[in-house]
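Record copied across here:
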Amino acid sequence: MAALTFNDLFESNLLNNVMDFSITDILIALFLSFVLGLFIYYIYKKTYSGVMYSSGFGVSLITMTLVTTMIIIAISSNLILSLGMVGALSIVRFRSAVKEPMDIAYLFWAISVGIVLGAGMIPLAVFGSAFIGLILFLFSAKKTLERPYILIVDMTDENAEKEVMDIIKTSVQKYVLRSKTFLPGNYELTIEVRLNHAENDFLNKISNVSGVTNTILVSYNGEYVT
C-alpha cells in the first residue's frame, strides 16, 4: 500500500472542492442569513399572541436560517455532494410538537430565507422577508385591537342573568354564548367576548349587578373546547 504524501493531499479532490468556494461569498451569505434570521426572530417576538412565549424557539429560527444557508451553499457547489446530502438528511426525524399554527409559518420562512440566500438570490431574500414581516406585523396589530376573552359569571337568579346579558350586548361588539349551567340557586354563564383595553370597567359593571356572586374574565388564544 503506497504511503500518502503531501503532494497527494494537495492534489486531492477534497482540497480542490474547498478551493472552489469563494470565502467572500460565504461570509456575505452567512452574515445576511444571520441578519435576516434576527429579523425573523424580531417579528416572531413582536407578533406572538400565544400563552407561553419560548425564546428558545426564536433562537432556533436564527440557527435554522444559518444552517439552511450553509447546506444550500454546499449543495450548489457539487452535484454528487448534493445527492449524498439529500440522502443523509432524509434519515433525520423531528419529533418536537409545534403548539402554535403560526410557528410552522415561521419555520418555513426561516428555511426559505436560508435556501434563497444559499442560492445567491440576495434581493429576493431581503425584499421578500421585508414584505412578509410587514404583512405579519400589520395583521398582528389589527388583531390586538380587540382581544378574545372567556367571561364566566355566577348568578343567583334569572333577573341577574338578563341584566348581565344587557350589559354585554351594549358593551361589546361581538359575543358568543358558549355554555349555560343551571343548579338550584345558581346560574353560570360562559361567554366568549371581544374587548379592547377597557377590561376593568366592563368587569366592574357586571360585578356590581345585584345577584352576581362571582365574575371571572380569562384571556385566551381564540381556541375553546366545550
The longest strand covers residues 186-195. Strands lie at 147-155, 175-183, 186-195, 212-219. The domain at 147-219 is CATH 3.30.70.1710 (Alpha-Beta Plaits).
